[in-house]
Write a structure and sequence with these properties.
About 20% of the residues are buried. The chain is elongated, with a radius of gyration of 17 Å. It is an alpha/beta fold and about 150 residues long. Strands 3-2-4-1-5 form a five-stranded mixed beta sheet.
């Protein structure tokens, strides 16, 4: 209560791995660690990408609690990570990561800029909101999503 928000972006997940990884089967890094649902992110991804999990998974899940850890695991060649596209973007551009598959899926999470209602018309809040939207409009992740109709 007492807060307003501006939608910034919907989280889209993409599968990435180190460029030196080869082969059809990989260790898969999951951040879905809820008992009984471990790896649900990958099951959803495979359904959307028209892949069979059994065709791509080798060995047990590599489990971690945060997307940044998953990206680091992928960067080190430990497996394929399913992470937000905007977090992987810099590593993809620098060649530290490559796409496993270019399919993006919505995670169901959204990012918002939140501020007190009482500050909604302050110049600084309005300027920050406009700046964030301008930055997003120029990123390749957002341009890709707009081209694909996401």
């Amino acid at each position: 209560p007492g807060f307003a928000s501006v939608h910034v972006l919907d989280e889209m997940l993409v599968a990435v791995h180190a460029p030196r990884q080869t082969g059809h089967q990989h260790r898969l890094v999951t951040t879905d660690l809820e008992p009984g649902h471990i790896g649900q992110d990958w099951l959803d991804y495979c359904n959307r990408a028209e892949l069979r999990l059994s065709d791509i998974q080798r060995g047990p899940w590599l489990q971690c609690t945060h997307y940044m850890l998953a990206i680091e695991m992928a960067r080190c060649g430990l497996g394929v990570a399913l992470v937000p596209d905007f977090l992987a973007q810099r590593d993809l551009e620098q060649g530290n990561l490559v796409y496993f598959n270019k399919t993006r899926i919505a995670s169901g999470r959204a990012y918002h800029l939140c501020f007190k209602y009482s500050r909604a018309n302050e110049r600084a809040v309005l300027s920050l909101t406009l700046w964030i939207k301008a930055q997003l409009a120029t990123t390749s992740v957002v341009r890709f999503a707009k081209k694909r109709g996401a």
